[in-house]
Amino acid sequence: MSRYWRTVWISIAFSVGAYVFWRWCVGYVLPFVFGALLAIMLQPVADWFETRRVPRPGAALLSLVVGGSATILVLGSVVSLVASELLQLSRRLPEYLTRGEQLMQHHREWDTTLVRHLHLSPSLVNTSLTTLYHLSEGLVRSLLLLVLKIPSLGLVVVIGTVSAYFLIRDHQRISAHMLGALPPSIRPQYQAAKYDIVNGTLGFLKAEALLVFMTAAITTAGLLVMGIRYGVLVGIAAGLLDLIPYLGPTAILGPWILLAWVVGHHILAVKLLIVLLAVALVRQLLEPRLVGANMGLHPLVALMALYIGVRLFGASGIIIGPVTALILKVVYRAHQTIG
Fold first, then answer.
1. Contact by Cβ (8 Å): 42, 164
2. pTM for this prediction
3. For 35, left (φ over 0), alpha (ψ -120 to 50), or beta?
4. What DSSP designation does 24 have?
5. Residue ranges per structural domain of the chain
6. How do residues 161-194 score in pLDDT, each as one tens digit?
7. In angstroms, what CA-CA distances link 313 with 19, 218, 288, 317?
8. Residue 182 in 3-state DSSP?
9. 215, 283 contact by CB (below 8 A)
10. What is the Cα–Cα distance from 245 to 306, expressed in whole angstroms?
11. Would you say the C-alpha torsion 266, 269, 271, 274 has a positive or negative sign?
């Protein structure tokens, strides 16, 4: 078999194996994958403590304490901002409910007029409303399923944190054992592959975190500059929804724009549309570049990996796709080197 066809078959076998792993096997190793990523991120912190003559077990424990404290501090700040906005919203909620009831009363006359002027079929309108209802129902169901998974996610975090401690504490010993178990001929390729996978995965996670932060920051800043209430709350929600493909901030700003235009607040609708377009433009321009640059992938390859991952695995494909493309690149490079 020629070298070309051997490479093709290896790539196909790897792709099929990756699909089987991500589809059916990842749940069994997820805590340890999380622990490995946590250990890699906190390894420099533990090394710094060790240079200050802290024993390795103590350095590993202190690095986890520092990482946990930083996470709690950031989450606490975000929760505090969201809580203050929710408090303001709760005070004005009766007023908003009254406006909503008035809008519903007006809607009974408005929808007939709109259908008549636009020459729309009543069946088409009913079908569209039914579709919108089912989409909303599906979103609520997904959120409820996420809430139900919180206990299992907590177990993943606990087991992952414990495994991260042992990985940080025994880093050199574990690396030596893994390297010693490999044939001498492929040990150099193992070191290069390990470096590429670790740095590429961390780079991808950093790129995604940066994109979420940028979406939240642009949305919040745009709403606050335009004098729109609850800018922080909406901005944080838009940033978190940006992790969901095809949804993102459009899930919040889109219906808001439509409702504002329908009730006659055209200036508000235009302002919201400007914010949404700004977020979408920045996201579309920067996502392939950030993901590709941080993972060592060409922007076109990163974009294809994102799309295929989302099509195959849904929302989780936004991580699975690029990571699989990165590992496939490393496997191909190692095969070329060995060949």
1. yes
2. 0.67
3. alpha
4. I
5. 189-339
6. 999 999 999 988 888 888 777 777 777 777 677 7
7. 9, 29, 19, 5
8. coil
9. yes
10. 9
11. negative
